[in-house]
């Protein structure tokens, strides 16, 4: 049953409570999805697993290339990537965005912010559990990409997946979905990719850490956005705006293509 929408005359307190309730519903929905998966969902999961496994075969080589070229990367790029992908800056930016939408009673901005926050909570839980459960070694510790120490609490075994990538791509994908213009989307995704790429040059993560983190962000954001659309909790365009993602195999290459 759809939650009753709020109007411009609703108090800020009631709007905040409305958003909080919907945010909690979004997180609950996204975390419960695996219990409702169908055959196509497990097929998608299998495809992601196989693709990640295939990409992992070049993790060590890719790390060497990125680290070797790190001195040629502008300091401002590395600094921007590290700061934007940090939890502190990320949540300050979200709080600012939501605060603006709340006090101006702008429903589209509020909806976007609720989507970001809900997705962040879900991806954050997935990331935290995965880092400890998989216990994958980080680059630069004299260890290889195939070294794991399951259920480890050591920082050097918390590489998989990339937290900076999950945060930046969650925000970028949620914001990009609000634009109809292709170039606007490209601009948003370009900014969102700064943190993931900078982590590779810094030798902080393997290529698959970043790749899978981006996929997790996209899947979670799309899932919650679809739920919000069907629940009719906020105003949406008549035509739901989605990006269609598919894997592409060609010769010795593998990639992901997004169709706007």
UniProtKB/TrEMBL annotation:
InterPro entries in the record: PAP2/HPO, PAP2/HPO_sf
Stretches assigned to the Phosphatidic acid phosphatase type 2/haloperoxidase domain: 111-225
Top-level taxon of origin: Bacteria
UniProt-listed Gene3D superfamilies: Phosphatidic acid phosphatase type 2/haloperoxidase (1.20.144.10)
Pfam families membership: PAP2 (PF01569)
UniProt-recorded name of the protein: Phosphatidic acid phosphatase type 2/haloperoxidase domain-containing protein
Organism name: Flaviramulus aquimarinus
Top-level taxonomy: Bacteria, Pseudomonadati, Bacteroidota, Flavobacteriia, Flavobacteriales
């Amino acid at each position: 049953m759809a939650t009753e929408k709020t109007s411009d005359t609703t108090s800020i307190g009631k709007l905040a409570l409305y958003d909080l309730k919907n945010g909690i519903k979004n997180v609950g929905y996204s975390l419960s999805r695996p219990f409702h998966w169908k055959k196509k969902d497990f097929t998608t999961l299998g495809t992601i697993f196989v693709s990640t496994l295939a990409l992992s075969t070049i993790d060590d080589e890719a790390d060497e290339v990125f680290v070797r070229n790190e001195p040629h990367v502008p300091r401002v790029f590395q600094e921007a990537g590290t700061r934007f992908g940090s939890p502190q800056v990320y949540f300050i930016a979200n709080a600012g965005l939501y605060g603006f939408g709340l006090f101006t009673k702008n429903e589209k901005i509020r909806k976007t912010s609720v989507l970001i926050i809900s997705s962040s909570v879900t991806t954050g839980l997935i990331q935290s559990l995965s880092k400890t459960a998989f216990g994958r070694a980080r680059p630069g510790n004299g260890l290889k990409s195939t070294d794991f120490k399951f259920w480890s609490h050591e920082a050097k075994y918390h590489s998989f997946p990339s937290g900076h990538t999950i945060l930046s791509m969650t925000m970028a994908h949620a914001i990009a979905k609000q634009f109809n213009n292709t170039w606007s989307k490209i601009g948003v995704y370009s900014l969102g990719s700064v943190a993931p790429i900078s982590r590779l040059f810094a030798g902080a993560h393997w290529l698959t850490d970043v790749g899978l983190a981006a996929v997790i962000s996209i899947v979670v954001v799309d899932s919650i956005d679809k739920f919000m659309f069907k629940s009719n909790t906020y105003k949406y365009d008549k035509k739901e705006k989605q990006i269609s993602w598919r894997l592409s195999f060609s010769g010795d290459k593998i990639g992901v293509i997004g169709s706007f």
